[in-house]
Design goal:
The chain is an alpha+beta fold. The protein folds into two domains: 29-177, no CATH class; 183-211. The protein is built from two helices and 16 strands. It has helices at 2-21, 185-210, and strands at 29-33, 39-41, 51-56, 67-68, 71-77, 82-84, 88-97, 103-112, 118-122, 126-127, 130-131, 135-139, 145-148, 157-160, 164-168, 173-177. The chain has a seven-stranded antiparallel beta sheet with strand order 2-15-12-9-8-7-4, with no helix packed on it. A five-stranded antiparallel beta sheet has the order 6-5-3-1-16, with no helix packed on it. Strand 10 (126-127) and strand 11 (130-131) form a beta hairpin. Helix 1 (2-21) packs antiparallel against helix 2 (185-210). The longest helix has 26 residues, at 185-210.
Length: 211
């Protein structure tokens, strides 16, 4: 009986290890929470804000400047529109980190594939084509323009056209967590099938040794 358990365990151990190795390798997940918009044109309101969840292809390095990050998947919302990899494209995604890898500067813009709208958040030294300007914007239809001062704090902030909203000189915050490794269905099925075939064999070998 003990030999049978040992034989089955000897096969299960490598099988479970292989299953872990075949898990889908995922990078860290970044979460961004922006501050409420300070100006808005309906259907936007100042209760809206930019929020984002982004899964990276690999971990961010420490002490990098304007690093071109690569997103495996993402979801950005401004309270009116939600843009993902299924309905938009990333036109800009640069980050800067400190000595422990925390994000201290960024420029992220995602453009809608269905309209000429976009969502953008920026906490870098030069954003929106203006030096020293930071903040968030959400525009569901690009029918107007945003005018602001060149430096923070901004003395002039207006939006023409719309619908859209934004805030300037008030960027939000980032947090990060490690993604959960999920076994790929095909790999998991392959390993489990192999284990199902090997366990009876181990039982038979153990029975022969006991006899």
């Amino acid at each position: 009986m003990n030999l049978r358990r040992i034989a089955i365990g000897a096969l299960m151990g490598p099988g479970l290890f292989l299953l872990g190795c075949l898990s889908a390798q995922a990078g860290p997940v970044l979460n961004y929470v922006g501050n409420n918009f300070s100006f808005a044109i309906p259907t936007y309101t100042t209760d809206n804000r930019v929020m984002a969840t982004i899964e990276l292809a690999s971990a961010l390095e420490n002490s990098v400047t304007d690093f071109a990050a690569s997103a495996v998947s993402y979801s950005l919302s401004d309270g009116i529109q939600t843009l993902t990899e299924a309905n938009s494209t990333v036109s800009s995604f640069f980050v800067s980190t400190n000595a422990v890898g925390a994000i201290i500067g960024w420029d992220l813009r995602v453009d809608s594939a269905a309209t000429d709208g976009y969502i953008q958040t920026c906490g870098a030294s030069s954003c929106f084509g203006l030096v020293g300007l930071t903040g968030d914007f959400g525009i569901s239809e690009l029918t107007g323009t945003v005018v602001s001062s060149l430096d923070c704090p901004a003395s002039i902030v207006t939006m023409n056209g719309g619908p859209g909203a934004g805030n300037v000189c008030s960027p939000g915050t980032w947090s990060a967590r490690e993604a959960t490794l999920i076994p790929e269905p095909s790999s998991a099925a392959l390993v489990m099938t192999a284990l199902g075939m090997l366990v009876p064999l181990a039982r038979r070998k153990a029975s022969v040794r006991l006899s």
